[in-house]
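Anyone opening a protein record will find just a pair of labelled lines. With that in mind, the following record should read easily:
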Amino acid sequence: MAGDGGKLYLLFVDESGTHGGSHAFVLGGIAIHERDARKLHKLLDNVVQKAVRGPNLNAEEFELHVSEMKNAKKPKQKTSKPQKVSNWALIPRPDRLALLEQAYGIIKDFRPTQPTLPMALFGVAVDANFRSGWRAAEREAFAYEVLLNKFDVMLKRNRSENGGDDLGLVIHDRRLVAERDIQAWTREWRRAAGTIGQLRNLADVPLFADSKATRLIQVADLVSYAIWRHYSPDPPKEDYIEHLWEVFDKKAEQMCGMVHYTPSYGSGTCTCRSCGGRLTAEAMKFA
């Protein structure tokens, strides 16, 4: 543990948009103090247990994964092909959607044990047409550098405001094809400044865990999915990000935890809350 009181912030991270043809690559994360991690986990676990009822059903096997919960289908009765069946297919779709709303509501309404150590969300959305000459690895490295620097800045701000010595630890959903790259990138950014800045407040390189093992990585999935769907060219009616805007990291009421990278930002035509806030902040500098 870090410091005299074992102060450690945990940043749980997941991504969306890694499939070919995606409109954006998105990282979503939730930063929560170690003192509150168990509290949030329990709140989420309780609502899952209430929704998953049955003598042969184990709530721990039901992961809060948005796309799976929305699209889970029962297997076809007559087929010779092997079928991948989701546990969520055993739960009626209306109940699944209601559970998702509950989960997002818990994130929105969560209050930390200590107000000076708040929970905060982070997000980075990099449009596919932003620096279109980039390879996928370059786009992802940029997104990770932005996300980790945002988290690092929050830790530094907390130290300044609270007089503590909080360090951060990043815990990412398992992603075998990219784990070594992500750890190598982070190791380099801790040694020297990258394109954005040097990471000075992380306890170690990111760790990786199975999302089924903890509801908090599952929260990161809820965040990344909400961001990805929000920036979709054809967003759905149920806009989950409306639950989250006020929870993204802020400094003096200015949202700084969510960043959208798009060519539309430079022309001032992107109307999302992230780009709008950045444009207003830049205009105030020259006022």
Q: What stands out?
A: The longest strand covers residues 24-33. The beta strands are 8-16, 24-33, 120-127, 167-173, 207-209, 250-251, 254-255, 258-261. The mean pLDDT is 88. The chain has eight helices and eight strands.
